[in-house]
Structure formats: structure tokens, C-alpha cells
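Pipeline run #58 for the internal structure catalog. This entry was flagged by the ingest filter as a single-chain record with no existing model, so it goes straight to prediction. Upstream metadata was stripped on purpose; only the residue string is passed forward. Reviewer on rotation: M.T. Logging verbosity set to normal.
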Amino acid sequence: MQLRKEMGRWTPRLSAELGLLAVLLTCCCAQENPCFAVRAGTCSECLQAWKDCAYCPEESFKGPRCDLYENIIAHGCSAAAALTAKSSMMIERKQPINMRLKQSQVSPQQVSMSLLPGEEKEVDVEVFAPTKGPLDLYILMDFSNSMVDDLNNLKRMGTQLASLVKDLSDDYTIGFGKFVDKVVEPQTDMRPSKLKEPWPNSDPPFSFQNVIKLTSDAAFFDSELQKEKISGNLDAPEGGFDAILQAAVCGDKIGWRDNSTHLLVFSTESSFHYEGDGVNVLSGILARNDEGCHLDAAGKYTKDTQQDYPSIPTLVRLLGKHNIIPIFAVTDHSYTYYEKLREYFPIAEIGRLQEDSSNILTLMRVAFESIRRKMSIRAEDKPKAFVTNFLDTSGRVVEHGAFDFKPGAIGNFKMRLSAQQMVGGKPVCQLEPLGKKGSIRVKPTTFNAAANVDATILCPSCECEKSAIPAAAKCHGHGDLVCGRCQCYDGWLSTFCNCSESSAAQDTSRCLGPDMKDPCSGRGDCLECGTCVCYNPDQFEGEYCQYDKTDCQRYGGFLCNDRGSCIRGRCACNEGWAGNACECPNSNATCLDSKGGVCNGRGECVCGRCKCPESDMSMTSTCAPNFEAQLGVCEGTRSCVQCQAWKTGEKKDKTQCDKCPFKIVLVDELKEEKDVAHSCSFRDEEDDCTYRYNVEDWKPDSKVKELQFQVLKKKDCPPASLLWLLPLLLFLLLLLALLLLCCWKYCACCKTCFQSCLALLPCCKGGRMVGFKEDEYMFRQSLLTSDHLDTPMVRTGPPKGTDVVRWKVTDNVHRSPTHPQVLMKPNPKEIIPFPISLRLNRLFSENLSRPDSRDAEQLRKEVADNLNEVYKQIPGAQKVQKTLFRKQKNAGKRQDFAIMDTVLSAPRSSYPDIVKLTQKNVQSGNLHDLKVVPGYYTVATDREAAGAIEFQEGVGSVDVHVPLFVKDEDDDKKQLQVEATDVPLGIAEIGKRFVNITIIKEHATGVFSFLQPAYTYSRGDGVAHIPISKEIIEEGSSQVTYRTRDITAKDKKDYVAMEGDLTFGPEETQKIVPVRLLELSEKDGLLADKQVRQFAIDLSNPRQGAKLGRYPRTTVTIADEPDPSVMMFKKGSQNFSTTDPTYTIPVVRTRNQDIPATVKWRTKKAQRFELSDLLKFSPGETEKNIVIDPRAHPGPIQPETIQLELFDPSVNATVGERKTTLVNVADGPHYKPLEMEQVQNKSAVKGGRLFSPTNLKAKATGPRNIRLNWDAGSGNPAGYKVKYWIYGDPEKDAQVLDVKSPQAELTDLYPYCDYEMRVCSYNALGDGSDTDIVTCQTLEDAPGEPGRLAFNVISPTVTQVSWGEPAETNGNITAYEVIYTPIDDDLKAVGAAKKVKIDNPKKRMLLIENLQRAQTYQYKVRAMNSIGWGPFKDASINLASQPTRPMSIPIIPDVPIVDAEAGDEYDGYLMYSNEVLRTPTGSKTPSVSGDGWKFVKMVGSNLDLRKVSWKKRVDVIPSRLSTDTETSSDEVPHPSYAQTPLPDYTSNGKWDQNFLFPGGSATRNLSSSSSPMSTVGSNYRGAGGSFTETNTTYMSAGGSQRTDMIRGGMHSSEVIMRKRSENRSYMDENIRDSIVMGDVSGNFPDLNARLSPGIPDTPSRLVFSALGPTALKVSWQEPRCDRDLQGYCVLYQLLNGGKMNTVNVTNPAENSVIIQDLLPNQSYLFKVKAKSQEGWGPEREGVITIESAVDPKSPLSPMPGSPFTLSTPSAPGPLVFTALSPDSLQLSWEKPRKPNGDILGYVVTCEQLHGGGDVRSFEVNGDTAETSLTVPNLTENIPYKFKVQARTTQGFGPEREGIITIESQDGSSLSQYNSQSMSSREVFQMPTEVSTRMNVSHTMMDPYFSDGAMMTTQHMETSGMVTRQVTKEVVQRSVMGGTTVTKKMFYES
């Protein structure tokens, strides 16, 4: 009873607060005041800034004149004087829809409106589509030869086609068109015979022809169709886009009607050509499609060879403009292409054609029915200043095509037109007239009729500006008074122009207000004439900056309750709010009761809350008696009714009865139950009579504002005549109870029977009822913290006995039976998870809550064994998993028992069987041998659940653990229904049977969440850094509240509580909450049983459109870790002699010796061995010995000093101060240990060498700083030398810092770069020993500007811009931003800037369409990493002055295409070259003729030189391939393979890599990863940068001997060079890269010596071919041998050590193996040797690395689909070619990163790629970072192969190859090698100042593959100026129907 009273007191207070909170949350949040930006502007500028801005022209007004209306009124401006602007809207023509007209209609027809900036208006629109309206059906069919059977079928179905159209519409027309492709090469075979008849019995090739104009004559259509014959072309993609465009724009010639639905059926089996899709499209130069109609009298397209195909955005725009809906009828071969294409159209359909088009009629019918069900609303011709949205009748914004309007019925929607405030960064009123005004056509896509909306941006002007008062007295005659503000003349200042520009104007005393000591209150600058300019105008205001805008009263932590503004120290509340902190709403909406009254007439509404009179009874928030807090009205009033009417019951005492808040009225007859609010009846326990009463609500017009209680005077009592039966009945009942009790002992079922029998007896029911406490719950999904809801069920009546209630829950009960999701029945055989919960017959313990505890593990195994045994009888059931244990509150007397949650996977259809089986076993109390508590279970699926709960004796409330089935595909508002089904055990009846749970899904702008649900920190960490993330859905600021909460950890004892608000900016995604952790007190530290300390952090109250995400709460565990074990050497030095049999070195352990621990040890600086091992300490062990046997190692035992080191301890241990020890081995047995100790005390070993410092630690303190500290160690050093170098560089290049104390600060480092460091001490005798190397990475910094901008000009209005990765990434690049702005000659903006953000950092290209013709644009690009945005890289270019590309635009996967004029509708078109260019496999008839074809040179338009104006001087960047095609030589293993930066090619210690293709990225601390076509750009150093000495040797073409000069001697080795196609085919193995190591000896003495007879030679050629990031093919060439070979052996291991793996090849005919499961970015040493009968031959060695992008969280796991390439550290860098003349070029390269020995020079060979001519050899001496060589006497148009090989002191390294062609520019014919590489160049008109121009096509193309890369360098010389332009062409070949089609991609810098 006391608890009930407490609940009653709290309920109204809580309800009131929640009600007020709900109202507050519904109000809009405060936003930034747009009027602030124009406070200093004119009156007109103020009114034009924002729809709510007002201006105060009063002369005496002292506040900001431009502000929100309510703010200037609050500052003192009179309402009559305040100037505002009003917009207007008028419906000029609105004819009602006539449903009898069979045509599309829209109403209203004409609307005009004006909108202020930032204003929105809505218009209600009605649309009508007839059931069978007019229909125009145009069939557009592919007539390539592969469609011959499709055409024949269509001819046969001509009559059926006409019948189909008649069924679809009573008013129809039908037409037919055909298409093939452009009649040019390579699309069409241009041989005369093929132009006449490409296939037998076929028509000549054509592009498009309108064959049958739209007609209603079906017979004519059928007869004309029969005349058609097939045609043909060459390549697979067809020119259908040309046909679609002509069919759309040639309305009169096609025959489209105005008031009909336009359908275009596009039938093909091939992919499509589109604008600029590469060299396979055109070899000439075509203009961009002009979007005009070009059909001749015969209906043929006449400009197919004069202009390009249209682009996808163009087709989308034109088809929408002409109301044409496409239906793509395509076969399986091309279905995926058109499926992607369909997504770009607002309404389009796609159907899957059979191979012969036999199902085209069915396809058309299905597509038409689908289109009729959709309706997409569009706003056409919309000016830039407006934004449109379309809403359904409920006000919900609807996406395109989502309106479900039925044909034949009127549909309704709303159009919301919004005027933007800013466009392109400037106010909307500053736009050109066409951008602010226009006629918008609003209509469904399928309609011609439209609602025309004449919209105008209203830019008001102030009349007071036209009546300025010159030399006004208010302005002291020194200025004009304009709209209440003085505009001073020259020489006069201040607000009223009363201060001249003189020295007196500098007097700061004028800036002092009353009682002020500091000018401008210390918050601003005092300017001339006493004018205060506040430091922060957003915070301070007033004449003297005396008011702080953040210093007003707050409510709930918010300034002015976020419902007003702080103005001059007081809150100026928004409309509808009042109070000192704007905390009180003026409306009484929050005080209204359910009947519309205020506070139920019992209280008054004060500040939005009902103030109720004092009463003992609990009141609701609206002052109504809160009977629900007492389990209902009847239950809450029965005691008061009983005491007042009969003086009985629990309140029969008069003092208690007088406290009742109501009075009763005794009546003779009660009203019927339907006429009253509540009808109640109860049994009076004192006389066993039943009394009844009614409760009525008060009437609104009644004077008495109380509930009316009418009590029936007469009770219903048992008749007296039956009293004699009572003893007999009692005797019989006792006898029956005794019998049943005996049965109960032996049969559990009798217990149920007994209770059921009792339930039949009226005297035993006792009014006991069970049911749900509430009728409905409503939640926002973002606020849910669990996937279950504990729903209370209550029991009333006598609490004696047990009741078990079964329940069930059903998901999505709000859906109608015809809902698509309801009609979609699930697969009954589908295996789904069944969550099952049972209450175990054991108490819950803390250990069970930790899944990894021993108790939980044992119980989990017991549960799994028993449940698997029980459920194995369910067919298809699997083993249970994911078993967890928990405790449920409000579970009665069983709430301390453990509840087990597990998951059983089984077929969906087995749900009823699982429920029955579970129920049966739970009822028995056992599941096999597992003891459970009867009366509780839950079995669930993904859409329904069933279970049971138990009310024990004396328990009145139990929670039902209801699953909520929250899924991503849920509706925005879904409803679950929980039902109490029956009471199988007990006597209770079900009262409130149902409860509904509604879950509302919010669409938020951002989602706040913790990154994970739990964190663990040690007290030693000091601070727990908890990250809070924000997922950005829509850009904008947002806030969230966080607060810590105790669990087992206590505030101010274990941690310091935190709470507050976090504000995230528009682009912020993460913030850190630091929580301070406290050390244990001495008392807690001594406790033996340390409890796990945990606290929680909750997120709440997301604001400004945000919501809570997956983890709104996280739990932080404070781990009190035991002190770690400390392990160290027992002594600092150990002394032994050379005669000792072993060296025993003790290692001791201190602290926490009861746990196992390990530590590794190793020897250093030993002469004969390098040892290492693991030392294991068992629990209790305190000392272990390291034993070294010196005799177990080769070589004589000599005196030496060996250093031993301990490292890498286990996680529960650490290394102590003696982590190293010296082992001194002396000669003979007479060693004197004392002398050694004396030497040590002098801090030196032999030669005075100091010991190394200890405990060296490094920590990054910034992007360019690292702090080092160490322990000094023994001895007296004079100072310390700190060496540091970039990771991967040799230590000899280290920088040295001299310091005097044991700490150092490294500065001027490179950001986000790995460094290695070590320290040594020194004294007068020299340097001591070095410490071990430690590594540290500097922190990230903002990125540098991107690499060069490159433009590829498609047309005067279309360009592609690409850029390189920043040379200084300073972290991981996450995004790029491109801004392009039209500018004038002074580089000033003349139009709006457009901004495009590219979130994928690998996509460094952007295709921009619809630029303004002949307009110069400025393009700016910047990069972003985790720190933020870097600086812009910009360039300006006028496309009109640039040449179009001869090969059109390259199509690169995932290149965004942006339409500069179409707004947001066309952003983000993506097409894929590898899809469009693929030949349909399995096509029965190829589209390519079978006779073959040849290249014919095309003549295009003239080209001009590029004119790109750069902001800064453009560095020439020669491009280099990062993937090398072939290297030949030995590869000697080297202990390090890390990249070493070269002097001229690095920036900030990192490769300056500018990738032109997506997928490449490299930093100093990651291995470079790039695709085979990736490029690396570096700053180029021209010829003459280094001295070269060149010797040239000419060889005959047929010779196979190579002669090299080595140290004055001759070395000859025979190298068998063969074509790569011999003996192996790599194309079938997806090889992406290969490196070849050739036949070179590594030892120079006796180079020609032979091995023993019969022993095989070394395999002469080792080839590595990458099959993937972890797979490698190793091939070799058969060695020379006098006997038959028996096999090979391949050995490989990691270069830095590890297990040696062996692969034996027993078949001597096999000369390759495939190695799998290699580690990415790791160098491997491979060895191959051959075997004969005489034994094994010598090994061929090679070192190779497969470089690829890896997962940052798992460095050994390559990213799926990432590119990969091979590298070897000893090959020269990429070859760079520069044209010098038509017959000479300059070749340059970088030195190898890790050469095998010292470089003596290089050997360069040059030969024609396809034979012929001499093999020329050049020897270049010297060792420089980059070497150059000039090669003369070359021939134009002949491809040459160059090889560069380093000559070192150890031999020759691998070769670097490159293939180059100097191409003619004078129009000469192609070379004889064009079958390998086709490249055409046209005659160029040169400016007069240009004297020469050459192109050098450098083809780095691997003959193994069909794909390669071509680099062209253009070198232009002018008078006094040399410019080099580098063009990169990537050549991609694909075999299409037996024809090689070449695709070239251009990138220009």
C-alpha cells in the first residue's frame, strides 16, 4: 500500500514533465540568424537576405537595424515603423478535372507566386489518367545480323502486336524504327562489297531509319513490317543511342501526339555506344551531338558520321522533356548493362527477351501494366533559385515514381516550392534574371498536360532609400539620413557623423561607458570617434560591448531555453513563449485534459503545467484522479466506496475514510453500463455480499467538476434458505480437496486438473484476473536500447496460489491483408534462427554475466548438450549456439534465478513443433538432464513469438520479455500486438488481453553512437578515452547529451563522473569523451575479493535532426590488473674463460611470482653464433638459467665479449632495469674477475667503449615532433648522440643530434612518417655501444595540395578533369572536393560556383558536362584526411580554345559524370568500360562479320595546341609505370627491401606519387600498391644533370652473344631470348604482372668454368608472374645438362627469415609451379635447382615482392579486388623517354633502391621490337640518383625495345625494359607493325613560333598480355622557350568476335 501511494505521488509529476518535454521537442530548434550577415548593409539588402528579416528605420533606434522581426521589436523598435516584406501566391486558372475526357489532365493549370529568399509555399495538385487513354507505341529494333531470328518472329507476330495495342488502349498508334551503328570504321566494315551487302540477303548498313510513322492502321503496319531485311556491322556495341535521340526529338516525323502516353520499346541483344567511349568508337574527331532532328525524307539519320553519340544525361533529359517512357527489351547477354541504365530514368522498364524475341508481346504487356502503376512527378524548366519537393496528402516527401495513383481515378499531391537563400555562395537576389524567375512545368512524366507555375524571387526594396535627407541635422550636417541611418560624407565618422578624421578622434575615453574602467568593456577595439568594434560580435553587443549574449538565464541547460535570443542582457522570447528564460509557453495546450478543458477544472495552468490542489489521491498531469496508478478506476476507488457506503473494508476507520477525495451518492437503480464511464462490482469480505457502483465523468456545463460515484443501495447477498447447505458443501469440498491433494503427490497432471476444477467454483474464483497493465506503448526506434521490451502484466484479486499465463506476439499487425509484404509468403524450408529463453533452476551469479568465465563456459556446455538432445527430434534442426545468461527484474520470487538465452537454427515450418516441444519439457521441469523452472519459456522467430510467465503466490506483477523484431526493412511506423492467450495453470481469468507496441522509425540527418558497446581500461591508464561517432546522412550541425552512470564503479571513488553536450560541426564525425580514472584507495587495494568495477555512459537528447544509433550506451570496465612480473639478468656482467664447458647466465624474476610468464633472449655481437630462445617461468619459479655451449658451434673458441638481451615479455610481465648483460670470455683459466669489475666501474669495456643507454622510449608529440628519453646506464658519459632516419632508409643516411641530457626532442620531421632511432653515449675515448632501434610514427597533418590538374577536352562544353594524389598526403586521404567557377579575364567569378565532393579517394577524375560555351572556368581541387582539408590546387582553362580529343573520352570505371546545368538531378552517372565493351558470350549469331577487316586511317578536324593558364608555374612531370614488364638477371638476396627515397623524387620523405588511375596509393609507411596501369609521377630532372661516360658497341641482329665491359675484362654469357608466347600461355591464368631474372653469374673469377659432367647448370632464366596479391607463378628455363634431367626443386622463404618451404617437381617437362598463400607486401627469397642422375645442380636465386593494398586493421589481409604488382629492389627505376628530334631521344632512369653491391655503371641495349637492324649497346659509368642517356639514329614509326641493367661489384642486377615508338606527325602511313599497336595522328596546324613537334609513343607493354600502357611525350620548342607535355595513353585490347579492338585513354598534364 505504501508503494502504491508513492507511485501515485510520482506519476502526475512525471507525466507533467514528460508532457512539457514533448511539447518542447516539437518546437523548432534555434538556428543561425541569417539577418546578422547584412546588419551593416542597406535596408533593401536586409529585406532581401531572408524571409523573416525586418528593418527598423527609426532615427532613435539604437539596436541592430536588421534582425528578425521579434528581435528588433525587443530592442525597442515600434511595430508600426518596422519594415517587412510580404510574398504572394495566386491561382490564375483552375479548371476542374473532367473524368469523362479520355486524356491526361492536371489541375490547377496556371499558378503565379513570388517568394522571399528562404520561403516555402505549397500548392495542392490534382492529376487524372484515364483507364484506357491515348497511347503511342514506337518499336525501335536492332537490325544487326545477330537479330535476324528476332526480326522473323516479329514479322510473324505483326497481327498479334496490333491486337495487343488495341487491348491496351482504345485510341492508339503504332510505329517502327530500326538501327545498327555509325557507317564508319571501326563500327562498320567499309569495304565496298560489305557496304553493299554486309550479310547475304541483307540491307546496306545504316545508323537509324524511321520505317513506319506512328499510325492507327494495323494492317498497314503489318504489311510494311514484312518488307524489312536485316543489316550488319562490326563491333558488338550498337548505335542505339543515336536512334533513341532522333526518335525523341523528331516528334512530327515520328508522329507523337500531344495528349497521349508515349512508349518507346527498345529491342536489342547488344550493349551500346555512348558519348566518347574510346578509340573503339571512332578513329576520327567528331563534334558533340547537337540534340537536333536530322532525318531525311526517307526517315534516315543523316549526321551519324558527323557527330558523336549522345550521353546518358542527354537521353534522360530529352526523353523526359518529350514525355517518352523507354522499355528496354533485351536478352540475357546485355541485361546487366540496361538494368544499370534504367536506374537513371525516372520511369523506365526492362524485360528479359528470349534469344529469338518470341516473348516480346508478353514483355510489352507486363511493362505497360507496370508503368501504369507508377507515376513520377517532375518539375521542368526550374530556375536555379528554386528547389521542389513533392508530398503525398499526409505531408510526407515522396521520391520519384512512388505515387500510387490509380488510372481512372483522381490523384492528389502537394508541390512544395522553396526559394533558396544562397546560390553558389552568393545571395539569391544577386542571380541573373533567368535564375530568379521562370515558368516551372509540374507534371507526371507520362503526361503532356502540366501545371504551369510562374515563380519569381521577390527582392524587395525600401521606399525610404528613395527619400534620403541630405546633410541631415541628425547627422550633424555631415551626412545623409537614409532609412534612419547616417551615411557620412568623406572625412567624417561615427554613427551620427559627428567626428572628423583627426588626431582627436583617437581619444579612447569616448569608449568608456558609465562605471567602466576598460574601453569597450575590455571586449573590443576602440576606433575613431569612440566607436567600439566588439572582438566577437556573435557574443558581445551594445554601444560599449557591455552585453554578453551568453549571459542570459538558462533553462534545462539551454540559453533562453533555446526558444529566444539573448538581447542586451535579457531573453527576448520567440512568439508563443514567455518567462525570464523563455521557459513558459503562452499556450495552455500542455494543460488541456482529454475533454478539452483546462486542468479538469481542478487546477490552473501556470507556465505550461497544471497546478493541482493538494489531495491525498494521486493526480495526473491534468489534475484528474490517477486511478491507473492503482491498477484501474474500480480498483483505485473500491476502498473509499466501501467505507462510505457500508463502513467496511480497509478504510472503515473514519479518519481514513474522511481522506477520500470524492463523495458517493446512494441510488436505487444504476444506469446501464454503456451509459457510464466505468461500472464496478466487488465482494464485501465481511458479509460475502456483492456491491455495485458506477463512475461518471463530470459534464462540461456542470458546476461540480468532480467524478460522480453512484452506489446501488442494495447488495447482492446469497439467499438465506441455502445456509443449511453450507456445512454439507464444506464437508464435500474438504473431502474433494483431500483426494486431489493425494493425487497431486503422484501426478503432476492432477495439479492442473485440481486448479481447473477450483476455477469452476464461484466461491474460489475470488475475482482474480490477469492482464497487461497498459493498452499501448509507443517508442522511437532511435531511443531503443534493446531489441526486447519488458512489458508488465499484473494480477488482481486474492494473491494466493500460482497462475501461469501463456502469451504470443505478432509483428506488423498494422499491415493490411493485401499488403505486398503480407502476400509474400516465406519459404517454409528456409533455415532461420529461433531464439529460445528458459529459466534455469539455479541462482544467477556475477560470473555467469562474463561469457569467458569458467562458470559460464561449464554451464554453456551443459545447456548445449541437453538442448541438442531434446531438439534433435526436430527435422533439420542444428545445434544451439550463442548461449548467454542474464537475470530479469520484476520476475516475482524467481527473479534471482538465471535465464538462459540461446539460438536454435531450424526450418521455418518447424516453429509450432518447437513451441510444443519446449512447452512440454518446461512443464515437466526438465530438458533432458537440465533442470528448469516450470512456467517460463520464450520461443521466437523473425516475425512472431510465444511464451509463458508465472505468477507465484503473493506476486502481483511480472514482466513479459517481448521481442521487438526491429529490422531495417520495417515500415516507418510499425505495430506489434502482444496477446495473453490463456491460463493453463491457475484460476485467474484474463482481463486486459492485448497490448499494442508501436515503433516509429525516424529519418535523421545524423546518427550518434558509441563505436562499441563496451570498453576496458586499466586504472594505470589514468583516463578512459571513449569515442562518440556521428554518421552523417545530411550535412549540418547537431548535438547530443552524454552522461556517466554508476554500475558497480562509484563516482569520486573509481572515476570522476562526466556529463555535458557535444556539438558536431557539419563535417565532424567523431569526438572523444575523456573520463578520469582514480587510483584504488589503500582500503580497497587490500581487499581480497575485488569486485569488477563498471560504469556506463549514456547518450540522450539528440538534437537538430539527429537520432541515436546502434550503441547509445557503452559500458566501461575498470580493470585492476595485478602487478606484472619483472624479469631481468641477475648480474650486469658474467665472466668465463675459453676452457669453460658452458656459459650459464642466470635470469631472475621478482613481483607476482604466482603466475606463468615468458621472455625472449638473444645474443648480440657474438663472433661465432647468433642465438635466441624463449625462457619460460612456471608459477612459483623465481630464477632460470640461459646455458650456452660454446663447443656446439663451428670455429675455435677465442676471447670475446658477448652481449645478451631480454626482450618481448609476455603481457603479464615486463623487463627490469638489467635487460642486457655482458658475457666476458677470457683466454685460459687464469682470468681475473676483479680486474674486469674494475674496468666496468670505469664505465668502459675493451678500448674504453661505454655501455649502451637503456630503456629508450619514443613518443610522437605532433606531426613534426618526436620526444625521446632513456636511462643513462653506467659510466660517466660526456653526452649522447641520437641517430634518426626514415624507416627503410639505410642507417648511414641518418641525421645525428648531440645532446647532454638523457632526453631529446626531434623536430622538423615529416608528418605521418615512420622513423627509426637509436642512441649511444660518448666520452673522451669515443662512442659507446648503440641501443636497439626503436620506431615511431609522427602524427597526421593536413594534406598538401593535390598533384597536377589534367584536362581532357571532349568538346567546348564537356571536359574531364583529373588530378594526382598530394605529394604530402600527411595521412590517409579520405575525400576530394572539386569546385569549378566561371571567371572573367581578371580571374573574378562571373557565375555560381559548383562544388562536388568525391568520397572515394581512389576516384581522382570528374567528367563535367554542359559547361558554358566559350567560357573560361577556374577549377580548384583539394584533398581531405582525418585532420581536415588541405589547400586548393587550381587551374583555369577555356575549353573553346582547346582541341577535342581524337579518340574521344576514356571510360574509366567509377568516374562520376556531372551535368553543370541540370542541377542535382544528373549528379552521379557511372558507366563501366569493362561492361560496355564486353562481347555478349553465348550469342548465337555474332554481330561481327567473319571475313576480317583492316584499319583505315581516318582524317579528322585540325587541332590547336593546348592553352592552359596555371596559377603557378607548372612543373613538368614525366609519367612512369609502376609495373615493369620484364627484368632479366640474377637476384642476390638482401636483408632489407624497404623503399629508399631518392633525392630528386621524394617530398617530405615520401614518394611523390601522382596516380592517374583509381586504385593506387603509396606512403612512406606502407608498401606501394597500384594496378598494372598505375603510374608514378616524380619531379623530372633534365639531361645534363649528371656526368655520363658512354661506350657504344654495335652487334648484328642475329647474334645471341652479349659483350659487357667489366673491370677491364670481358664477360660473355649466352642468353636465349625467346618470344613470350613460347611454351606457356599466361592469359588463361589471369596473370597481371611478371618479372624475369636472366642468366648472369654472380662471381667474376672463372666465369666460364663448367661443373662436373652430368651435373645440371643453373636454370638460366627465372620468371615471376603475379596471379593475385598472395599467389605467384614461378617459371624457369631448362638448364644445360649432359644427362637427362630428373626433376626440379623450388625452395622459398621470407627474406627476413622463417621456415624454408620446398616444392619438388618430379616431371622434368614441367618448368613452372604456382605458389599460394604468400603474405602481401613481404619479400620472398626463391631458389630453383635441377637434378640429374649425377646429383643436384647449383641454385638460381631471386627476391620478389607482391605489392598490394591491405586492410589497415589486418596488414596481412589484402583488400578484396585491390590491384597488385610485382617489385624487386635491385632493378633500375622506371624508364622515362623524352623526344629530342624525329630520330633521337633521351632516356633516363633512377638507380635501384637496393642494389646488390656498389653500382659501377649501367648497360643499356636497344633493338627493334620485331627484329631487323642492329642490337646497340651503351655502357654508362657512374653512380647517381638519376642517369640519362641520349640515343641517336632512330627511325620514325618503328617500335624499339630498351633494356637497362645495373652493373655492380657483385655482378649484374635485373633488367628494366621499356618499348618506345617515335611517331610521325606529317600524316604518313602507319608502320608495318600496326597490327600490334594502332595509333593514328593527323596533320596539325602549328602556330608560327613553333619550329618542331614530335610525338614519342612509349609503349610499356608486356607481350604476355593484351593489356598494356603507352606514354607519349610531346616536346615543343619555341623561340626562347621549351615546353614539355606528357600524355599518358593506356591501351586496352579485348578480343571481340575474332577482331582486335583497341581502346586508348588520354591523360594530359
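catalog note: Residues 1343 and 1430 are 5 Å apart (CA to CA).
catalog note: Residues 2-26 form the longest helix (25 residues).
status: ready for reviewer M.T.
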